[in-house]
Each structure stands twice: as structure tokens, then as C-alpha cells.
Amino acid sequence: MTAIAMAEQERRQTVTVLFIDIVGFTALVDDLDCAVVRALQRDYFGIVSDVVRAGGGVVEKYVGDAVMAVFGTGAGGFGAEAAAAAVKVGLSVQEALRGQLLAGRFAVRTRVGLATGDVIVDVAATRDFGHGMISGSVVTTASRLQSYAPHDTVVVCSETRAVTDQLVAYQELPPVRVSGKPRPLGLWRALAPQHARTAKRHLWAVPAAA
């Protein structure tokens, strides 16, 4: 492929990367028949991918029990709404999985990590189920943050929190030291979309009828 063709196929842009995995997956499947593991994965991947795509994201890959998704690669480009959509998808996936029995018998807990930053996007790959669509250190950051998330929570980096602060309510968590990073990373737990929190405040403010 010529340099010109590669330039046309690839572009630099900001995106938000989401990682989600199942807590204790290795121990869960250790004694299971492979057919049961496959049924569990099929149910899990189906739920996650449906929520990701409904929220405007692209599923980039499945690895074991992990799903990586990317937000902000569409025609509209990246912005606060794209990053907020990624956070809302993380919360929605956990809500969708709550109470579900995967493969008809397994209730699971998950952890979600999100990071925002610049990547090289393979434009063609965004139309081909996302496989190998982005390259950049933000991918590793999102994966690492996910591993620090408390069970059944969504955590984000400082950049994601800054761009979505007017759209999502957060709780600050202690910074974490991540291998390969020179300084601790800020960590924020996503609580709820801001409009939902505002609506509740308004509801609470309504006086009781006489």
C-alpha cells in the first residue's frame, strides 16, 4: 500500500475507549465444560455488543471475557456527547447484566474502564466490525483503569471526566499507580447522567400537596 493510500485510510483523532470484563472469570470457568463457557460468552458478548452499538460505539475486539469498544469515530467526530455516550453505555451494560443468568445459570459482576485520548483510526476498519481499528496508548490506559475499577462500577480517566463533567455525575476515587506511567492516574467513578441527577433534585424540591 502506498503512503498516499495509507494516509487516506488512516486519520488521527480523539476517541474514548471502553473496556469491560467479568469479575472472577478465570475461576468461574475453570471447571466448566468448554461448551458451557461458549454459551456464557455468547450471552455476555451479545448483551454488551447490543448496548454498545445502540449507544453509538463500535466493538473493536473480544478477548476472553473482555470487550473493547470505541466511541467518537463516526461522521460527527469526537465531542463531549461521544465521550458521555461511552460512559452511559458502561452504566447501561452493567444494568442490562444485573439479574441476568448467562447460559441460563450464571450471574456475573463486571468492571468497566474508560480513557480518552488521541489515536490513529483505520477508517476502513470502522466499517468492518472495528477489528484493529485504532492504535494509541489510550487503549492500554483504558484496559489498566478497568482492572482498578471496584466490582460493578464504571471508572474513567481525568480526561474523560473533564470532557463529560457537565453530562455525567462522578465520584472522585484515590489516584492509582499504573505500570509504565510516570505519575499516578486520576480515577473517577461514574454515578449517573447529569440530567437524571438534576431531574431527581427537581423532584425532591416539589412540595407535598396540601
TrEMBL record:
Domain named Guanylate cyclase: residues: 16-146
SMART domains reported for this sequence: CYCc
Entry-linked Pfam families: Guanylate_cyc
InterPro entries assigned to the protein according to its UniProt record, in alphabetical order: A/G_cyclase, Adenylyl/Guanylyl_Cyclase_3/4, Nucleotide_cyclase
Gene3D superfamilies to which the protein is assigned, alphabetical: Nucleotide cyclase (3.30.70.1230)
Entry similarity comment: Belongs to the adenylyl cyclase class-3 family.
Source taxon at top rank: Bacteria
Protein name: Adenylate/guanylate cyclase domain-containing protein
